[in-house]
Design goal:
By secondary structure, the chain is an alpha+beta fold. It contains three helices and 25 strands. The longest helix has 22 residues. This is FbpC C-terminal regulatory nucleotide binding domain-containing protein.
Length: 343
């Protein structure tokens, strides 16, 4: 199969998935209406009709789950709101927003004390925030329902926070620390290494946007699970002026980069884990996207959210790129930090 045929096949599958999601995704008032209908029909002699309706509803829900549980993925809250992402519109508040309308869907938690609104990471059905306490910075895990748990690990600087596959990773001085539970894996960095972004895959591989000593332009370095240094790394060198953010999309890597060295354009290029380019990405108009002030995330449908700190957001869906509204609460308060898809 040549590249053009492969691209058409991917675009066709993506379009079909989107149509199925849009057709099956229930409206917010669907469940209350169905329950009310059930109560009215409890004494009705036409119960076979209600049974049939129930079977259809169950089949629709099953189809929704089947559509969104792709290989390597597990069911998460994304399946309930496939067109939503998370952001922090106010200090301590983590909320879900609709991609297309910008409407706030709901609040995951409204009392994450001392939370840094610019630091937010997701790993399936949990969200991680960085908070400041009297004992220093701590990581707080928030799960659907709003329950919180302060992780019993002392950390250094977790501004570069990522999560995936049940692990957490962050920069700590001259190393990147990977956590699974309370077990720490330290990846030593050569002195003078600049790290701009981190991303963990579901199978434990770590991708870094980093510039090694003596290099001004960053590249993407991919480390195997269990690595303790940069030895054995795979280097992904995007074109243009180097990447500013990275994420995983299934088993592949996506890097946000500028095609030129001037502000005004950006694109999301994709690579396999061995560094082979899969797609150059469609350029789109954007202000200068500085490392640390922009977040790149992916959803199970293969779409990318490019979100900045107050300088715009874009949804990248194959060859289609569209600006999307800012994440603002019902009171008109907008997020200072970038948002993120549920991973």
């Amino acid at each position: 199969m040549n590249d053009s045929n492969g691209t058409r096949d991917v675009d066709l599958v993506r379009a079909q998935l989107h149509r199925l999601v849009d057709d099956v995704e229930p409206k917010p008032d669907a469940l209350p209406k169905m329950l009310a209908s059930a109560r009215r029909r409890q004494k009705s002699p036409r119960r076979p009709w209600f049974a049939a309706i129930g079977l259809v509803a169950a089949a629709a829900v099953a189809l929704l789950v089947a559509v969104l549980v792709l290989p390597g993925q597990q069911t998460t809250q994304v399946s309930a709101h496939p067109n939503s992402y998370l952001a922090a519109p106010e200090p301590g508040v983590i909320a879900s927003f609709d991609i297309f309308s910008g409407r706030q869907n709901g609040v995951l938690s409204d009392d994450v004390a001392g939370a840094d609104p610019a630091v937010l990471a997701t790993d399936r059905n949990r969200v991680l925030a960085l908070t400041s306490t009297a004992d220093g910075e701590r990581l707080v895990e928030v799960v659907p329902g709003g329950e919180q748990r302060v992780l019993p690990v002392r950390i250094g600087d977790a501004r570069l926070l990522t999560a995936g596959g049940g692990k957490i990773a962050y920069r700590d001085g001259d190393a990147v620390v990977v956590l699974r539970g309370e077990q720490q894996q330290r990846i030593a960095l050569p002195a003078g290494t600049r790290v701009d972004d981190l991303a963990l895959s579901d199978d434990g591989r770590l991708a870094l946007v980093a510039a090694e000593p003596g290099r001004d332009q960053a590249g993407v370095l991919v480390l195997a699970p269990g690595a303790t240094s940069l030895d054995g790394r795979v280097e992904v060198v995007p074109d243009g002026c180097g990447p500013v953010a990275v994420t995983w999309t299934g088993r592949d890597i996506a890097a946000l980069e500028s095609p030129t060295c001037d502000a005004g354009q950006a694109r999301v290029a994709t690579f396999d884990a061995n560094g082979r380019k899969l797609g150059a990405g469609v350029p789109f108009h954007a202000p200068e996207l500085a490392a640390g002030a922009v977040r790149l995330s992916a959803d199970p449908l293969g779409r990318f959210l490019v979100s900045t700190s107050g300088h715009g957001q874009w949804l990248v869906d194959g060859s289609e790129v569209r600006p999307i509204p800012p994440a603002c609460s019902a009171d008109g308060v907008c997020a200072d930090g970038p948002g993120t898809f549920w991973s």
